[in-house]
Structure formats: C-alpha cells, structure tokens
Design goal:
One of its GO terms (molecular function) is sequence-specific DNA binding. The chain has helices at 8-11, 92-102, 109-113, 124-135, 137-141, 145-172, 177-186, 189-194, 196-203, 207-218, 222-240, 245-251, 257-268, 272-286, and strands at 4-6, 18-23, 33-35, 38-52, 55-60, 63-67, 73-77, 83-90, 119-121. With 287 residues, it is of the alpha+beta class. The protein has two domains: 4-172, Regulatory protein AraC (Jelly Rolls), CATH 2.60.120.280; 177-286, Homeodomain-like (Arc Repressor Mutant, subunit A, Orthogonal Bundle), CATH 1.10.10.
C-alpha cells in the first residue's frame, strides 16, 4: 500500500501555522500516510485501532496521541464501532518554538525519539476540559488568524506540559505498581468524592505509609491529591453546567462550602463565582 505524504502547505490555509479539524468518523480520515508537520489527536467518542509505525495501538474515548513527522499511521475500525476525534496540526517551527519556550527543564527525548508516538488516556474530566478548549477556538478567534494562532499555541504548550512531560517522567520514575493502580482508581468520581476512606480501601495501606509514599513521589499529601481531583471536577462543572455553586461543592465531595471556596481560590486564583462570570463574559463577547 502506497504511503501518502502530506505537506503543511496543502493542509493549512495561507499564513497559518496550525490547523484544527473535528473528524466525525475514521472513514473520513486519511489512509496510510505521513506528513511534514506535527499533530495531536484526541478521541472524543467511540474506539478504534491506530496503526502506527507497523504497530497497533488501541484508542478509545479520552486517548490523546502526539504524532511526529516521522510517524506513518492510519486507522482501523474496532468491532465496527464509530470513532470521533479532534485533530490539531502544527508546523515544525511552532513545535520547536514551544519546546524552546518550555526550556531545558522539559525533557523531550521520549516525546521526539520513541518508536511509537506518545499516547496517554485522559480522565473524563480532563478530556471534557480539553474538548471544551478546542471547540471554543473558532468561537473566540472570530476568524482572526492571529488570535487563532495564539489560542492554539497556548493549548499546544499546555498539552506538552500537562500530559506528555508527565508521560516522560513516568517512564523514569520508580512509582510502585500498586500506587500507579491507586492513582488511576482515584480518578473515578465515586472514589475521589469518597476521599481518604476510598484511598485506604483501594490501596490496603496504612495512613502513615500512604503519607510517606505520596510525599516521596508526588510531593503532596493524600488529602491534597484528593482535593486536586475534586477541584478539577468542580471547575469542569462550573464551565459546562448551570448547577449552583453549593451543589457543585457537594457533588465534588466537599461538605463545607467555605472550605471549598478557600481551596478553589488558592488553586485557581479566582473564586467559583468569578470563574463562571469569566466564562459568561467570554461567551457573550463571542456571540
């Protein structure tokens, strides 16, 4: 099968350095191909098989993959299921500039040189937030190419820093397998809302042992980790629903509204009400 080769010149509009495209089915995706630009794609619904560099990756809702110019890939159906994703492309110059911006502390060896492209499965909360950010690029830029460039560059840097630097670090860490499993389990709403009791039950470790291990590997306490998950969930609800702040606080696992406000302001630099007002202001200015 012949490999199609795509150039950013033909994919992106004149003067653009990036390209964002929702893909409603893999039947609309390109056959086996490579290109002279970078891209990342996020699966928003369903599942499929991603064939890349002669290997197969199982991809499903929440899977985020970073494709390099050297990668040859295409998609296959998985059990006949429909698969939808958002595809975002960037020129080599943009990615190089973003990596320089992140500086020497950001190790990109695994990102750029691994045989298979970096791939990570996002928790539902983080997947929904990234989808929200991407879907609003066109609304917020209002056809302004310069503003669109800034918005997509910002998202690229966040994706590299928040997801693929963590992936790189996890390759080198000595994180115990039981703790890796625990962190994955704690991403589930029913567990982070239950809190420490769920963590003790799932880990089968004593409170003292958990405190020592969390401090050693994550530089935070179990309570701080749980609160970070709850706050991300609360932020997601504030941005995507009209549920009252007090009900969001309870849904996220906080039984004290004042404590919720204090932690939210400390981590997000705005109060829950202020965040919602910012969202409304942006929505009105773009309509």
């Amino acid at each position: 099968m012949a490999i199609q080769k795509f150039s950013y010149i033909t994919v992106m509009e004149s003067g653009a350095e990036s390209f964002l495209s929702p893909v409603n089915s893999i039947k609309y995706a390109s056959p086996i191909h490579c290109h002279d630009f970078y891209e990342f794609f996020l699966i928003t619904k369903g599942k499929a098989v991603h064939v890349v560099n002669n290997e197969k990756q199982q991809i499903s809702e929440g899977t985020l993959v970073f494709i390099r110019p050297s990668d040859v890939h295409y998609y296959e159906y998985e059990d006949g299921q429909k698969c939808e994703f958002i595809n975002v492309c960037f020129t080599k110059r943009v990615v190089s500039s973003s990596l320089r911006f992140l500086g020497e502390a950001y190790s990109n060896d695994y990102l750029l040189t691994s045989k298979l492209p970096p791939c990570i499965n996002l928790p539902p909360i983080e997947k929904d937030h990234l989808v929200y950010r991407l879907e609003n690029v066109n609304i917020l830029s209002k056809g302004d190419l310069g503003k669109r460039k800034i918005l997509l560059r910002g998202i690229l840097v966040e994706v590299l820093l928040n997801y693929f630097s963590q992936l790189n670090n996890s390759q080198k860490s000595d994180l115990p397998l039981w703790m890796e499993s625990l962190l994955i389990q704690m991403q589930k709403k029913e567990n982070f809302t239950e809190g420490l009791d769920a963590m003790y039950r799932l880990s089968q470790r004593s409170p003292g042992h958990l405190n020592r291990v969390f401090k050693q590997f994550l530089n935070m306490t179990p309570t701080e980790y749980i609160n970070s998950l709850r706050l991300k969930y609360a932020k997601h609800l504030l941005l995507t629903t009209k549920i009252s702040v007090i009900d969001i606080s309870l849904a996220a696992g906080f039984d004290n509204l004042s404590h919720f406000y204090h932690l939210f302001k400390k981590q997000m630099n705005v109060t829950p009400v202020q965040l919602r007002k910012i969202k409304v202001t942006i929505h009105h200015s773009s309509s």
